[in-house]
From TrEMBL:
It comes from Anoxybacterium hadale. This is DUF523 domain-containing protein. It comes from the Bacteria.
Amino acid sequence: MNERMEDKRSKKIVFVSSCLLNTNNKVMGLARYPGLCKEVFDTLYRHNLGIMQMQCPETLYLGIQRWWATKNLYDNVGFRKHCRELAVQVADYIESYVQVGYETAAILSCDGSPTCGVTLTSWDENWGGCPVALNYNDALVAGEGVYIEELRKELEERGLPLPPFYGLALDDESADMDEILSKFELFIKGACSKNKQ
């Protein structure tokens, strides 16, 4: 390739949920750090990964002062359509990177989220109607959030390579932050070494 076309870029990208870069997008009461989760981004930096921030479906749909909600409240036609529109934009980026041989090393999200959970989301039939005091941790269940489901579908329908999806358990107040970060470090090391093969 022409030397002018080569520079120091790693050609590896991680797509990251908005709230990991800007905790101000989280629903009130669930922020575990003041601005961004520095330890997460230190890890990405050490592995030479570029970062693309995905938009926050909940903030764009209901705003910053939205009520806490579980997946069963977001699992409706209008919100799924909104999530698919955002997923199309991310898939466009991923497809553009694929066309020039770049790798999407991972999709990084927030486990426990009703929209962005990867292995952990929330569901509680008692949530809905008049707001009541409920414990969010009691609503955590295995499964993907609405946005992650729509993003996965969009990538699959286009026949794009599926990067590994990873959810940091930041919405689980009982989860230990050191353990969360330790597991994340192992995941990133694995994702980077897998992509080298």
